[in-house]
Amino acid sequence: MGFEVSDELLGTFMPILVYWVYSGIYIPLGSLENYRLHSKKDEDEKNLVSKGTVVKGVILQQVVQAVVAILLFTVTGDDSGAAVVQPSLIVLARQFFIAMLVLDTWQYFMHRYMHHNKFLYRHIHSQHHRLVVPYAFGALYNHPVEGLLLDTIGGALAFLLSGMSPRASIFFFSFATVKTVDDHCGLWLPGNLFHIFFRNNSAYHDIHHQLYGTKYNFSQPFFVMWDKILGTYMPFSLEKRAGGGVEARPAKEFKDN
C-alpha cells in the first residue's frame, strides 16, 4: 500500500520547507557584493539582532503558522468522502488574484497601524525592524503576535475569501513565501523575475527598513496599490554605491523630509 500525503498536510508544511530552501539559496549569493543593496559590513554592524536569534524567531512563527493551518483545514475540510473536483485554470487564476488582493489589503492596514500605534510598534513591530539591513531568512523574523496577526490570520483570510482548495493553497502559499523571502533578500540581481513583474520588490521594501522610510512603503507582499492610493508611496531610484553594489535612494523631496 502506497503512502499518500494529504493536500492539507502539504499545504501546512510545504511553505515552511520552501522558506528555508529558497532563503538558503540566497546565503551564498550574499557574497556577490556588486549586487547587494547594502554592504556585508553594514549587515554585520547595523542589524540589532544575531542570526541565531532570527532563526529561532522564524521557527517559532512557523510553528504557530502550522498549528493555525492544521486547525483551519480541519474546520473547513470535507469529511463526506466525495471526490474533489479540481477547478479550471481560469478559476485558479481568479482565486490566486483574489487571495493576493486580500493578503495585500490585510497586511497593508495592519502593518501601517503597527507603525502608527506607538505601543504596538515599540513592543511588537520594532522586532522586525531590528533588521535594518534585511536578508532572506530573516523575512519572517517577527514578534509572535505580529506573525499571528499579519501573516497567519492574513493568510487564513486569503484562503477563505478566495475559495481556494487545500491543493491550490499549496501553490499559493509557497509562491507567497518565495515572494516574501525575495523581498527581504537584500540583493538586486539581474534577471530576477520578481523585479521585472512586481514594483513591490527587494529595493521597494528595503526603503521601508531605513529610518527615513518607516512611514512609507507599507505594502506587502505583492502590489503597491494601497501605498499609491493612500499617499504612503515613496519613489526611489537605484544608484551605484561607492565601494560596489547598488542602493535604493528615495526621491530627494522625501529624504529631505
Biggest sheet: strand arrangement: 1-2
Low-confidence runs of at least 5 consecutive residues: none
Structure summary, number of beta strands: 2
Percent of residues in β-strands: under 5%
Assembly annotation: single chain
General shape: globular
The computed structural class is: mainly alpha
Main β-sheet, in a few words? 2 strands, antiparallel
What is the overall pLDDT average? 94
Order of helices and strands: HHHHHHHHHHEEH
Helix content: 55-70%
Write up this protein.
By secondary structure, the protein is mostly helical. 58% of the residues lie in helices and 4% in strands. The protein has a two-stranded antiparallel sheet. A hairpin with a 5-residue loop joins strand 1 (236-240) and strand 2. Helix 1 runs antiparallel to helix 3 (51-76) and helix 4 packs antiparallel against helix 6. The longest helix is centred in the middle third of the chain and has 28 residues, at 89-116. The chain is globular and about 65 Å long. The relative contact order is 0.17.
Compact overview of the structure:
The chain is mainly alpha-helical. 58% of the residues lie in helices and 4% in strands.
Helix and strand topology:
Blueprint: H1 7-29, H2 40-46, H3 51-76, H4 89-116, H5 118-123, H6 144-162, H7 166-183, H8 193-197, H9 202-209, H10 225-230, E1 236-240, E2 246-250, H11 252-255
Antiparallel strand pairs: 1-2
